[in-house]
Design goal:
By secondary structure, the chain is mainly alpha-helical. It has five helices and no strands. The protein has one domain. α1 runs antiparallel to α2. About 0% of the residues are buried.
């Protein structure tokens, strides 16, 4: 399955991506991972996101302020492109949480 091979690359290169961010090769590796992700089907992208969610959780746990400052603009843009604001998103998430219980 292509999702597994992409996850495998993230695990293999994850530390390299972080440590080579300022180096010439780091950006190329990140762009390559992005290209591979873009070539996945929607279901594969969802599966991949579920696989890497624990890594995001750990990053947010280590430095929540930095992650919020860096990620909130992207989240807000995504919500606006779907015609939603933070209040609408929270309401939808609350409704989804109630459905699972």
């Amino acid at each position: 399955m292509r999702v597994y091979s992409l996850k495998e690359e993230v695990i293999k290169y994850g530390k390299t991506v972080c440590s080579t961010h300022a180096m010439k090769g780091g950006k190329i590796m990140i762009e390559d991972l992005k290209h591979k992700f873009d070539n996945l089907g929607d279901e594969e992208k969802i599966e991949f996101m579920k696989l890497i969610m624990p890594s995001f959780r750990e990053i947010f746990r280590k430095n929540p302020e930095k992650m919020m400052a860096e990620m909130m603009p992207f989240c807000e843009d995504m919500m606006k492109s779907c015609g939603m604001d933070m209040q609408g998103m929270m309401k939808m998430m609350g409704m989804m949480g109630k459905q699972k219980t």
